[in-house]
Design a protein that fits this description.
- The chain contains four helices and 14 strands.
- The protein has 201 residues and is mainly β.
- It has a seven-stranded antiparallel sheet with strand order 3-2-6-9-10-5-4, with helices on one face. Strands 1-13-14 form a three-stranded antiparallel sheet, with no helix packed on it. It has a two-stranded antiparallel sheet with strand order 7-8.
- Strand 9 and strand 10 form a beta hairpin.
- The model has no long low-confidence stretch (mean pLDDT 97).
Length: 201
């Protein structure tokens, strides 16, 4: 099968995000200028550079009470900071609860019963029990083609790692089993890994 996205795919559901899979989930916590906390998952998320360490996530829809975007991007525009919380399999239901199109005044930490902790380098809350959390300073927001498509880039200026996830000096993803996003309503979980040496190593 071949299709041009501009012409439509003719299938019951869009296959695009099932093709680009699995995707890590950035559970983005932000705080508005008014002091209100927000927490929402984004699967258009990844690390993009080592030195300095940088990450990005993309928001692809809008809410009526936020104009051209959603709460996360709106808050980051106001404050210039955000935190990326890593999602473990055990927190899948809490993460899913925070994905709803809740009104801007909703505190998703409270809604989903998630314990919060203060970040160290930025004025923002983080998920207290997350395997890891990356405190970020906004570097740029890029408007992408299409309505409400924004890519948010940040420099990581603080890193939290849960002590039980460190094994022999390495951050061990199998100790918490990262949740990943697939297509449609599907998710997956990382429960095994293997290593490959690059040519010449």
């Amino acid at each position: 099968m071949f299709y041009r996205p501009a012409d439509g795919h003719g299938l019951p559901h869009n296959p695009f995000n099932a093709i680009v899979t699995p995707r890590p989930i950035g559970w983005i916590s932000t705080r508005g200028a008014d002091g209100s906390d927000n927490l929402a998952p984004y699967s258009f998320f990844n690390a993009v550079a080592y030195v300095p360490p940088q990450v990005m996530f993309a928001s692809t829809s809008a809410k009526e009470d936020r104009g051209d975007t959603k709460d996360s991007v709106a808050n980051i525009r106001e404050t210039g900071v955000f935190c990326v919380n890593i999602v473990e399999y055990a927190m899948r239901d809490a993460m899913n609860q925070t994905s709803g199109p809740w009104p801007r005044e909703t505190d998703e930490f409270a809604l989903a019963g998630i314990d919060r902790a203060d970040c160290e380098t930025i004025q923002c809350s983080r998920v207290a029990g997350a395997p890891a959390a990356l405190e970020c300073r906004l570097t740029r927001i890029v408007q992408l083609e299409g309505a409400a498509n924004f890519a948010v880039f940040g420099e990581v200026i603080g890193v939290h790692m849960r002590d039980d996830c460190l094994k022999d000096g390495e951050f061990d993803v199998l100790s918490f089993n990262p949740l990943t996003r697939m297509g449609y309503r599907d998710y997956s979980v990382i429960r095994e890994k293997f290593s490959l040496k690059r040519p010449g190593e």
